[in-house]
Amino acid sequence: MNRNLILSNKIVDLRNEGYSFQEISDILASEYGIYKTRQAVYSLYKRTGGKIQKEDSDIEDVINVMALKSNLKEACRELNEKGSNIKYGKAYKIFTNHADRIESMKEEIIVKIQGYIKDKAFKSLVELKEKISYKGIVIDEDILLEYYYK
Fold first, then answer.
1. Is 44 in contact with 73 (CB distance < 8 Å)?
2. Which of 60, 73, 105, 138 has CB 3.0 to 4.6 Å from 67, enough for a Cys bridge?
């Protein structure tokens, strides 16, 4: 791992622990012999922190949408229509690395569906599909039926 990435991750970790940018600057100087102004620390944090948040957002998007869809390419297309900017290759990597979380999300959706059915909380299949949605992306009908019969 390169030095700048290690430094950036350390800054993000310290900031997430509640340290101010000046305190982080002081820690870097005293513990690591790295002298950065608080403005430089802030700049590194914003660049790295944003990337980490974007990565987490992409992971959550793929996990949630793949619990609703049967086709990864279609899921990517719909996510991108809703404002995401995720490429198929990245989505595939997330899909394969987080299969267990996708399965957990599917189980949560099955419980929701069972609750909606028990409570008679919908009047039509369209309304149920809208209730089981993520960022305006509705569940595929074949997936909904699969979950219904589990």
1. no
2. 105
pLDDT at 49 over 90: no
Tokens of 95: 């899909």
Number of domains forming the structure of the chain:
1
Q: Which residues contact 63 (CB under 8 A, 6 or more apart)?
A: 94, 98, 101, 102, 105
**Which residue range(s) make up the domain with 41?**
3-148
CB-based contact 19:27 (threshold 8 Å)? yes
pLDDT digit string, tens, across residues 102-126: 999 999 999 999 999 888 888 888 8
pLDDT digits (tens, 9 = 90+) for 66-91: 999 999 999 999 999 988 888 999 99
The answer to whether the CB of 86 falls within 8 A of the CB of 76 is yes
Model-level pTM?
Answer: 0.65
Total residues belonging to the chain: 150
The CA distances from residue 48 to 65, 90, 95, 122, in Å, are: 26, 18, 23, 44
